[in-house]
C-alpha cells in the first residue's frame, strides 16, 4: 500500500508542477503578465478585499454591519492562512521564474486565494456578485506569476470559503452563536 501512496503523491506533485508551468507560460504575454502583477499587488494582505468591504459598508448603510462583519471574516481568513503557512512551511515553486516578489518564502496555502474566496462568499451573500470573477482571476494570477502551486491555491480557496461559511450567521445577523 505504501508503494501506491508514493505513486499517488508523485503524480499529484507532477500534476501540480505541470499545471503551474502551463499557466505560468501565459505570463509570457505582456498584457497577461501586467494584469497578473496588478492583481498580485492589489491582493497583498487582502487589501483589495478589505477595501471592497469598507466601500460596501460606506455605500450600503442599511447593511453596514453585515459588510463590516464580512470584511472581518475576510481578514480572518487571511490571518488563518498566514498561520497555516507558518506551520506547513512549503517552499514556493522553484522550477519557474516568478514574475513578482513575495513577502514570504512559504506557499501553502495561498493567502491571496484565502482572502479572495472569503470575500467572494461574504460579499457575494450581500449581492456583490462581481467579486466572484475577480476573486477567480486573483486565484489564477497566483499561478501566472509563478508563486504558488495549484494545490496551494485550492487549499487557500477552501480555507477562505470555510472561514466565511463558518461566520455566515454572525455576518448576516450579528449573532455569533451558531
How would you characterize the overall build of this protein?
The chain is mainly α and 178 residues long. The chain has 8 helices and no strands. It is globular, with a radius of gyration of 17 Å. The chain starts with a helix and ends in a 5-residue tail after the last helix. The mean pLDDT is 87.
List the helices and strands and how they pair.
Layout: H1 2-25, H2 30-43, H3 47-59, H4 64-88, H5 111-125, H6 131-144, H7 150-166, H8 168-173
Helix pairs in contact: 2-6, 3-4, 3-5, 4-5, 4-7, 5-6, 5-7
Key attributes of the depicted protein:
8 helices; globular; 0% strand; 178 residues; mainly alpha; 72% helix
Summarize the structure.
This protein has 178 residues and is mainly alpha-helical. Helix content is 72%, strand content 0%.
Coarse structural class: mainly alpha
Number of helices: 8
How many β-strand runs?
0
Percentage of residues assigned to helices = over 70%
- Residue ranges: pLDDT <50 for 5 or more in a row? none
**SSE order in H/E notation?**
HHHHHHHH
Instruction: Compute the separation of the termini in Å.
Output: 41 Å
Q: What integer is the average pLDDT? A: 87
Shape: globular
User: Per DSSP, what share of the residues sits in E-state strands of 2 or more residues?
Assistant: under 5%
> How is the main sheet built?
none
Gyration radius from CA atoms, angstroms: 17 Å
Amino acid at each position: 500500500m505504501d508503494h501506491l501512496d508514493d505513486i499517488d503523491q508523485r503524480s499529484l506533485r507532477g500534476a501540480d508542477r505541470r499545471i503551474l508551468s502551463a499557466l505560468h507560460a501565459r505570463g509570457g504575454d505582456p498584457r497577461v503578465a501586467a494584469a497578473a502583477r496588478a492583481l498580485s499587488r492589489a491582493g497583498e494582505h487582502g487589501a483589495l478585499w478589505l477595501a471592497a468591504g469598507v466601500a460596501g459598508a460606506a455605500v450600503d448603510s442599511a447593511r453596514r454591519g453585515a459588510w463590516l462583519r464580512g470584511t472581518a471574516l475576510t481578514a480572518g481568513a487571511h490571518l488563518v492562512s498566514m498561520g497555516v503557512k507558518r506551520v506547513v512551511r512549503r517552499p514556493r515553486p522553484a522550477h519557474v521564474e516568478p514574475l513578482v516578489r513575495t513577502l514570504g518564502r512559504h506557499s501553502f496555502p495561498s493567502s491571496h486565494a484565502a482572502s479572495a474566496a472569503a470575500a467572494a462568499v461574504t460579499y457575494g451573500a450581500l449581492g456583490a456578485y462581481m467579486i466572484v470573477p475577480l476573486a477567480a482571476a486573483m486565484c489564477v494570477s497566483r499561478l501566472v506569476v509563478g508563486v504558488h502551486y495549484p494545490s496551494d491555491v485550492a487549499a487557500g480557496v477552501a480555507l477562505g470559503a470555510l472561514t466565511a461559511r463558518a461566520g455566515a450567521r454572525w455576518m448576516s445577523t450579528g449573532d455569533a452563536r451558531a
